[in-house]
Specification:
Layout lengths: L2 E5 L2 E4 L4 E8 L6 E7 L6 E6 L5 E3 L7 E5 L5 E6 L8 E11 L2 E6 L3 E6 L1
Parallel strand pairs: 2-11
Antiparallel strand pairs: 1-3, 3-8, 4-5, 4-9, 5-6, 7-8, 9-10, 9-11
């Protein structure tokens, strides 16, 4: 069974940095990994993604401040977040994607809280 565990969340001040990590288990590798976030009372939104071809994609609010990275097997993903703002506050989730007998599959972690104070 695929399992994802995020770590690295916490409370920081505006302008500071934080690095989130996510470890995926249950398979030797995955095709893509991504980060999402969900502010309290708002919809979940994607933050960044590493595609099967290792293309890095960022939501507009993350460009220039956040960096996503993975290892070769894509079973570990990190999100380096710089110049954090109060509006970056939320629960951050990592996801992993893979194919299983021609069926797309995905799994989510439980999330890690990031709080940015002004």
């Amino acid at each position: 069974q695929v399992r994802l565990v995020e770590s690295g969340g916490g409370l920081v001040r505006a302008g500071e940095s934080l690095t989130l990590s996510c470890a995926a288990s249950g398979r030797s590798s995955f095709d893509a990994m991504a980060w999402y976030r969900q502010p309290l009372g708002q919809q979940r939104d994607w933050v960044a993604r590493v595609s099967p071809r290792n293309n890095l994609n960022y939501n507009d609010f993350a460009k220039g401040r956040f960096t996503i990275s993975t290892n070769n097997a894509k079973n570990m993903v990190h999100l380096q977040m710089n110049s954090l703002k109060p509006e970056d506050t939320g629960v951050y989730y990592c996801t992993a994607e893979w194919w299983d007998h021609d069926h797309p599959k995905s799994a989510w972690g439980q999330g890690t809280q990031v709080t940015v104070s002004s």
